[in-house]
Amino acid sequence: MIRSAPPTQELLEIAIDVARDAAATAHRMRAEGVSVAATKSTVTDVVTAADRAVERQVLDALRKLRPDDAVLGEEYGAGDTGPVEAGGVRWIVDPIDGTVNYLYGLPYCAVSLAAEVAGEVVVGVVRNVATGEEWTATAGGGAWRDGERLRCSTETDLGQALVATGFGYDPGRRAHQARVVAELIPHVRDIRRMGAAALDLCLAAEGRVDAYYEKGLAAWDQAAGGLVATEAGLRVAGLDGLPAGPDLVIAAPPALFAPLHSRLAALDASGGP
Q: Is 74 part of any known ligand binding site?
């Protein structure tokens, strides 16, 4: 059965409401105290009870508002939702991006929620759990933070660019990523590693960093933030013409994309474990 896609504005309003409620729950649970509930890929890749509770809250809210939609989440995968029908909507949720920051009480973690239609992300909302900052975007409708239209950095010299990145949890991958950073840092202004991909993409969208790259991102890490970055004028892609994905995500202004891409390709940034 082919269904017509709902209006983007309708999906945006749902995403904002659901993300705000989810962030409020995460904020409350952090104030009440938080501990590790489980680990995933390694002992340092943690899951808190809040991750699970927040994602369950999002799933329940979306099921109530749009019961026929599919959902992909970090903690529950496809959950108990069905496959995406032609013309249908799939929601992509990271309940707490930056879980380690959340665990330690560092104010750099976020709820990330995106809506995808026909394989294209059309709505993205990222809300900082600690500060309440909120970034939104719609495909073709621009990127916004708290009512302000976002434009990416106008920097044209890679040597003057502040570049954000992140590391994976696997020790072998971290070692490879550290080697890449060590070789890259002499060619840029400086490196920032803050620990939440969705927020890194949003900071790049408003020029608070000039560019961002990272290997190992899942769909929920980049869906909403990637749309915010794209709509703010950044080029978001992988290496050698590939789309942004687990091998590598590069988000940079047009003038910086090619030189950053070339440097990362030469350093085998998508390689390693």
A: yes
